[in-house]
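May I ask you to comment on the folded chain given beneath this request?
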Amino acid sequence: MPLQFVPPPPPVFGTYRQSLLDFLGPQRPEVQVYHLPVGTLGLAELAAGATLADVVPSGCRILAAWPDGTWTSCEMTNPTVYKAAEFRNFTTGDFAGAAFARIAQAQGLDTVQNEDYDLHFLSVPGIYLEALHLVCKGKGSDFVLPLVSIDPQLGLDAVCDEATFLGIARASAASRVAMASKDPLSS
C-alpha cells in the first residue's frame, strides 16, 4: 500500500502556476510535483496535550523538481467559497531538495508498505519544527519526519511514530511555555 499523495484542488494549482510565472518567468514543465496539505499545531495546545489529530489545516505546499536539478517550494492558503488560494511564500534550493529526499525515505518505510498513509506537511512554529506528516488512513500510527528542527531529538534523520514525536514535542512545548510564563516582560 503506497504513500498516497493528495491531489491539489484546481484553484490551488492555478495560484501555484501564477506564482511560478511571477517568480521564475516561463519555465519548462516540472519533472515531479507533490502537493502537501499543511497543518499547524500551536505551542500552548501541544504543551496541553494536543495530538496529531488536533492539527489545524492552514494551507498547502507544492514541491517541484525541475529539469535542471533544482527544487522549489510554494506555500499557499487554502481556497474558500469566497476567496481564491493566496500565495504565502516561495523558496528554492536545499530546503525543497531535503523534502524530496525525505519523501523518498518515507516511501521506503516498511510501515508504509503495509498501511495507507497520506502525505502532509506539519508546522509547529512554537518549537521551530517543520516536518513531513504521514497520516495513517487505517489503524496504525502517524509518522513524523522532521525537515527543520532545533531539537536534537527531532533530528533531520529522525523517523518518529506519533507517540515518540508527541513525547519529545510536548516536553519541548511545555518548556517553552514555562519559560514564557516566568519572563517578567511577557504579557
